[in-house]
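Input record (one chain):
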Amino acid sequence: MKARVTTILLVALLARTANHLHAQKIKVIVDEDARGPATTDMQSILIFLQSDKFDVLGITTVSGDQWVKEETQRTLRLLEIAGRTDVRVVQGAEFPLLNSKEESDRWEGLYGKFRYKGCWSDFSDRPASTPPAFRAGYHEPDVALPLVEGPPHTKPHDETAAHFIVRMVRKYPGEVVVWAGGPLTNIALALRLDPEVPTLAKELVLMGSGMYADNGGISGVDGRREFNWWFDPEAVRITMRAPWKKITITPIDNQRRDRKSGYAGGSLPHSIFRRQLHVG
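The corresponding structure, as predicted from the sequence alone:
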């Protein structure tokens, strides 16, 4: 009887400990312009999924590096390959709040070409040796391109990204970290839906901006034109003026510094990627 009671208490203690450890995980919403396949956008998603420190509430997609519908399909397929179809994928904004391809085209006509414009870019003249994600021609947002990784069999969550963000921070007040790796359109829309989002969230962590005008930006054009903030500047204004409890920003300078150090060490981009993911 004593042994039986001890066993029951031990099982209860282990269950309580497991629940406590799960409760200690950081709840995070991953908001990403998930260009694919095999890009740093996908890499960032995998890091969250592989870490035992995070409870990924969902992945919200937003147009930026690619159009949002294509990104959503690629994210769903990534989760299938990774065996994490339990994580919700929520499709977000298709267009910036005000910025447009036509406006960027006019700017280029006046001041010169950008080397990179995300989903507005046309890389069709690049050699066949270029990775698929970086040699596509321009296409309209509703054009469904075949995925080299194969089509997903799962579907996105039936909700907009902005509504999902609002719902999660209200469900877990003071616990949710909003991580934004792309343009801030979804975040700005969530703030317009519910101005209390910043005070309900635990923290906003984002990749954007550039500290030095000559050391960052769109393929080195100008650090003040870092892509995420350049693509939707109005969303940046709305987001950065909100009363968040804490904001952490990773500027483009960090990425350029790490890339240069990798090249200086004689590492090719694909080997750097594999090393960071601990592959092989």
